[in-house]
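Appendix C. Worked example: Nitrilase
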Amino acid sequence: MMIRTAALQLHVKPGDTVENFNKAAGCIREAAAKGADLIVLPELPITGYGLTEENYHSLAEAFSGSLITSFQELARELQTVLVVPFAEKYESRLFISAAIIERTGSLLSVYRKSFLWGNEKRIFSSGKKCYKPVETSLGKIGILICADAEFPEPSRLLALQGADLIVVPSVWSLEAESRWDIQLPARALDNTVFVMGVNTVHEGSCGKSKFVRPDGAVLKEAPRDGESLLIEDLDFTIIKNIRKAVPYLQDLPASFYNFPLIENNPEN
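Step 2, the predicted output written as structure tokens:
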């Protein structure tokens, strides 16, 4: 199945939610006009990254709030599947989350970042270490947010459950650029799945959003220092052939692992 996918590499201004939303919505419309079936935003594309806890408490929303509702309406209007990360408020806690929205506008799932990095731990709560692909009209899509992709196990669990594509919305730093270049192809090759890394630019981020084939080859990459609408057609049917040539999943089956696969329920 050929899927036209779009990675929106954006400069997100910390705290400027109105400008950030308008930019994100405009870029989604542009990607949809170019035929994108799946459009993915970077990590925290509306609030921005690196704010204070007080700022995030004032700007974060529930997954049932007006922000995600607006993106649901946009997905329905444009008939595209959207992955929209956001600062989520649940009761008294904050999460770095991502909403997966079907082309009908229905909210399929909310994933919460499970491995927090640095100062994030002082502000946000970790999501459950539960990794389950989301069944969409385009195929099974796994979601990891930034540092989640630095560990091999989450990607492997998604692949073992049938993920065709793992998307990684991120705010990935210049200091860690070499890890971005190594780990995304490694996650793709180790699990023989497509990987789509969607990063921000400026504000200390390294850009270089990219699409990676299941054999680890980088198909397309955005620049380090500029906004970019990166579009690539992904053919999920090649996964089967690549897995014949590189039989990692066959040689190391799911029974090797002893991790509980708990339903990732946003109400918990």
